[in-house]
């Protein structure tokens, strides 16, 4: 019987029929999705921290309003994704707890510090750019609630990348010090950004199952190459350079060749040894603890109101 | 190298512990705010459409949260919030039997009828 259900399930996937929460699904599909969606949600939430760092120090009211709106969007993206994950039978509190105990991870990119205003530009351009490259195919993910959440996210993400590029464009036309600040930010964020696509395909064996189930549709390396090809051209518009001496157009491959990635650094950051891992998690735990009385008070108020309504 | 992470790609960063995700760690979720399903009317004249869910202590908070989460770009002119526990849904496993009465009645569709080309405006 079980095998039969699994066959039906795979036939639906192959026929591009979306899976909805109440449909039968293999337990591993459910678990993979819970992990992926919740960790994606955590990334959005933790991702607010590096940028939140600059809200009070934005150089103008216009930039401040934009940055606030962007960070608010990230909160929204986290919430869309948490609610998609909840349809699979995990509670919000469980997910929060998994983040706080370190059981669930989030994107390693957010464990790097934001040292200058130019970092706001580079995060929008490169980090959100890499995110978009990864997220657009997720809009066709086989699990309905995830795909629908991603459609919403992608619609909003494009503003994020454009405002980032605009920050850098402005700096590129500024003083020598401003140009240096922007170049320095690009130099620091470039390699972590291309690590966002994950390990090389031959070191990511379990993606095969995710491809078969159409949770994921392109391999890490395919997406990384696509991203590098796009950015290598865009950086010319800014008049800056990418910190990779091996970056070169390959006429036969019709792609840019690029230098080797420092995977040791990547694993170190994933394992918790990045520059800001502790700071990020502490900030999340503090926010959760500081908010406890608010959650309790709102619950108490709602209960009191409900009682009064019943009595009336 | 002996890190435990066995899987890593975008949106899935592996986990501290090997193996399948454990979905029942629950530190007995003390009092999670109830879950609400949110429906938004994009503009006057259209119907409310399901957009997702959120947590809120009561209906007023659900509507305010829905405004912040689902209408940051003028996506709505009206919001419905329904506590999730009050939604009753058909079971996908019953689909075959449930929709069976409609399955063999093609004559309910206009295309079922072959009319001569000479007949206009029908």
Please provide a written account of the structure.
The complex is a heterodimer of chains A (312) and B (122). Chain A is mainly α and 312 residues long. In chain A, 68% of the residues lie in helices and 2% in strands. Chain A has 13 helices and 2 strands, in the order ααααααααααββααα. A two-stranded antiparallel sheet of chain A has the order 1-2. In chain A, strand 1 (248-250) and strand 2 (255-257) form a beta hairpin. Chain A is globular. The termini of chain B are far apart. In chain B, a hairpin with a 7-residue loop joins strand 1 (35-41) and strand 2. By secondary structure, chain B is an alpha+beta fold. Chain B has 3 helices and 3 strands; from the N terminus they run E-E-H-E-H-H.
Brief digest:
The complex is a heterodimer of chains A (312) and B (122). Chain A is mainly α and 312 residues long.
How much is the radius of gyration of chain B in Å? 24 Å
Mean pLDDT of chain A: 94
Topology pattern of chain A, helix = H, strand = E: HHHHHHHHHHEEHHH
User: SSE order of chain B, as H and E?
Assistant: EEHEHH
Radius of gyration over C-alpha positions of chain A, nearest whole angstrom: 21 Å
Percent of residues in helices of chain A comes to 55-70%
**Unreliable parts of chain B:** 1-7, 18-28
The oligomeric status of these chains comes to heterodimer
* Chain pair forming the biggest interface: A-B, 70 and 44 residues
Count of beta strands of chain A: 2
Decide which structural class fits the backbone of chain A.
Answer: mainly alpha
Q: What percent of residues of chain B adopt helix (DSSP H or I)?
A: 10-25%
Strand content of chain A: under 5%
Shape of chain A: globular
Q: Quick check: average pLDDT of chain B?
A: 83
Q: What is the first-to-last residue Cα distance of chain B?
A: 74 Å
Large-scale geometry of chain B: elongated
Number of helices of chain B: 3
Instruction: Give the DSSP E fraction of chain B (strand runs of 2 or more residues).
Output: 15-25%
Structural class of chain B: alpha+beta
Strand order of the largest sheet of chain B: 2-1-3
